[in-house]
Design brief:
Blueprint lengths: L5 E5 L3 H11 L2 E8 L4 E7 L8 E7 L20 E5 L2 H10 L4 E3 L6 E5 L5 E6 L19
Parallel strand pairs: 1-4, 5-8
Antiparallel strand pairs: 2-3, 3-4, 6-7, 7-8
């Protein structure tokens, strides 16, 4: 029998990534630093989902010799992360207020797409049903998701 544990994404700025996923509603559930491996792992989950369905943020520390840190570009073969939210309009507004671009606004009151600071596509899905509302219903797509 298999059990889903987590999805790992590499991040360039752990503080920015943590704040982004907090805006969606995730919480940090644990963290581990490896001095020998020169990385930090931060595990995040929706409330009550730690140990069930987690997101692992992996931050590889810059090289000790002062050379440039690794750069990551998101491949479309990854697809996206998806989170159900209590109120998609409130969540998107919170993200916009923090400077996040809503790539695919929740025009239908059901689905939106945004990107993390590292370019990871994140789908937001409304729990239950909300009527379409302005300004969301009239917003155009921005960029790709």
């Amino acid at each position: 029998m298999a059990k889903y544990l987590h999805t790992m994404i590499r991040v360039a700025d752990p503080d920015a990534a943590i704040e982004f996923f907090r805006l969606i509603g995730l919480e940090e559930v644990r963290r581990a630093d490896s001095k020998g491996g020169r990385y930090t792992l931060v595990f995040m989950a929706a409330p009550g989902q730690d140990g069930v369905a987690e997101l692992e943020l992996t931050y590889n520390w810059p090289p000790e010799d002062g050379s440039a840190p690794e750069e990551y570009s998101g491949g479309r073969n990854f697809g996206h992360l998806a989170y159900r939210v209590e109120n998609i309009y409130d969540t998107c507004q919170r993200l916009m207020d923090a400077g996040v671009t809503i790539n695919r606004p929740p025009r239908d009151g059901h689905m939106a797409f945004v990107r993390s600071p590292d370019g990871i596509s994140v789908e937001l899905l409304q729990e239950g049903y909300l009527e379409p509302q302005e300004p969301w219903a009239s917003m155009e797509n921005t960029g790709s998701w």
